[in-house]
Amino acid sequence: MKLTIGRSALLGAAAIASFSIAGNLHAHGNVTPQAVDTSALPDIDGGNDHWLEENPYTGNPKAIEIGESAYGQNCARCHGLQAISGGIAPDLRYLELGASGDEWFVERFRHGSSHDGKVYMPPFGDVLGQKAGWAIRTWLETQHTED
Ligand code: HEC
């Protein structure tokens, strides 16, 4: 009897814990980030503590594939399917190629964008990680347009 009560109390506590984790994610701009499996990509020295300034995966077909799917799950709802913006958020096909585009991409990916206490874009750096970030950037490079 005692054991039964203890066990259900434990299950209750676990349910509350997982509920509040989901609640916290929702507080960040109402987004539940979708985990990205980046195990097929080369590791980056320093993990998420040291971010590179330039994309290490440019042209890597595996990164393009992973990036396309990660973009679809985490970014498309604001930035548009196939990176074609419907106007809510900037059209990422115009993001500059090369080092200065990389730098700006990483800044926004890691920290998102907030003004006056309002979250316009939630931060993704800690939740998705550096490898997923560069994979998305690699796919975006394939969608780049000048017009
Ligand atoms: C909740 C909506 C939302 C989601 C989700 C979102 N963004 Fe954004 N993003 C924005 C908005 C709005 C801006 C413009 C912010 C500003 O200018 O202050 C922006 C800006 C950017 C910029 C800078 C673009 C520029 O031209 O200055 C990049 C890069 C970017 N986002 C990448 C991403 C990536 C990659 C993802 C997915 C991992 C993502 N965003 C998910 C809303 C979003």
TrEMBL record:
Domain Cytochrome c, chain residue ranges per copy: 62-144
Signal peptide: 1-22
Keywords: Heme, Iron, Metal-binding, Signal
Alphabetical list of InterPro entries matching this protein: c550_proteobact (IPR030991), Cyt_c-like_dom (IPR009056), Cyt_c-like_dom_sf (IPR036909)
Keyword flag Heme: yes
GO molecular function, one term: electron transfer activity
Pfam family, one: Cytochrome_CBB3
Designated name of the protein: Cytochrome c-550 PedF
